[in-house]
């Protein structure tokens, strides 16, 4: 079981540098960051660009993997994103994972560029086209492609990613189309728990994750792929019942997730007076001791 953290891009650089270094010192497998232009209750406060912040983090860490959790078509285009990700992979000496999702239909990013939020069907179509083109761009030095929503004309991705044939892409999505896309093109899959209506309690939420994993396995089989080749990530922070209130509860959550088939559990870096508030000593203990408890 791998244990990672999400570090929100809310800190001025002197503090951010300390946070990213601390994540590595505590033994986190990866440090991810949300790729939004602003987000929920943080909309009125500092929120920095994710790719520049990850680039800076790459220069002050040595082992910590880095990634987006997640980037989306809401305000990204595959051509400049591929260039940014390639560059970030270079700066980090091959430590980057791109977490990618369809993006929220109701959040800040959905309308920040001045247009209306996309209908559900269009959002799913855009997501699939976005991922396919990004995959092609990251694998090839020269790409020309024409799509309904995203195109490229002799787009250059040179010299390419440090990680070959491209950096890993973890795809979020729990519906039929999202699971098929992850099975076909993803190196990993991301879930935050039940989609749609929140679960009544943690047991129900983890049961829903188990169902998602079973459907993901079926999608892999249909795609002619061994489900074991897809890295499976659970992002906590949106599960009911405050499952990280104590170390024992964290061990129980991660243990159950591992039994279900999750390979990596991601915990938010503590932010006081926010949905991600947590005792810092407990957080440190979770990162340093929990992996050893699970093997």
Automatic annotation (TrEMBL):
Pfam families: Bac_luciferase. GO terms for molecular function: oxidoreductase activity, acting on paired donors, with incorporation or reduction of molecular oxygen. SUPFAM superfamilies: Bacterial luciferase-like. InterPro entries: F420-G6PD/mer (IPR050564), Luciferase-like_dom (IPR011251), Luciferase-like_sf (IPR036661). Keywords: Oxidoreductase. Gene3D superfamilies: Luciferase-like domain (3.20.20.30). Residues 13-203 form the Luciferase-like domain. This is Luciferase.
